[in-house]
Write a structure and sequence with these properties.
Length: 203
């Protein structure tokens, strides 16, 4: 445990950007990410990028009742395996058969090329939580979001200390907002779970 935490502290510093008031003035603080779903568009075209076993997927379906729901994941690691993908397919088989849920297996950044620009009403990012991956995902998926659409995501926190893993979501999101004039509009605050965020372009 000590070695993992020491390794986290010795990693290369990530870029730090503080959002100005103009980019946080419309923020709403929300209890948890289940409550966050009540603020996101319903009957919409959406994507969950990083699905795992589909627990959050079930909550999205129940609360948001999306028109089209793309589930994007690699399912290619020991923790998130091909077997997990098959369990997701079985779990949401009826929605898949109806054409509401569409499974796309592959790298989160590469999979963005399969969608036209201005396609999604909102997306939810929950992949490896690193600065590099999150930055790439934000950069490519911003083109895939409709005007006024939302990019949300999980793990808006510095890291998982129990696992000795450093995250870069805060840094990547803050940098992205400043570079592209987006604003933070949602932030969850339940400390029993890692926080989620929501951002959109400033018009």
């Amino acid at each position: 445990m000590y070695d993992r935490r020491k390794r986290m502290l010795q990693e290369k510093p990530l870029p730090k950007h503080s959002l100005p008031h103009s980019q946080i003035k419309n923020i709403q603080v929300i209890v948890n990410r289940l409550a966050l779903l009540a603020f996101l568009p319903k009957n919409a075209v959406i994507a969950e990028i990083g699905v795992a076993q589909g627990d959050f997927t079930a909550q999205v379906l129940n609360t948001c009742q999306p028109k089209k729901y793309f589930l994007i994941d690699t399912w290619s690691t020991q923790r998130y395996s091909e077997e997990m993908k098959e369990s997701v397919k079985k779990r949401f088989n009826s929605q898949i058969q109806q054409g509401q849920v569409i499974i796309r297996e592959g790298n989160s950044v590469l999979m963005a090329q399969d969608f036209p620009d201005c396609f999604f009403d909102w997306i939810y990012l929950d992949t490896d939580h690193s600065y590099c991956t999150t930055k790439k995902e934000l950069e490519i998926y911003r083109h895939k979001i409709k005007k006024g659409g939302i990019i949300a995501g999980h793990d808006f926190i510095q890291g998982n200390w129990l696992k000795g893993k450093r995250y870069g979501v805060i840094e990547a999101v803050s940098e992205f907002c400043i570079q592209h004039n987006w604003e933070m509009i949602y932030l969850t605050m339940d400390y029993n779970e890692f926080p989620s965020f929501g951002i959109r372009a400033i018009e």
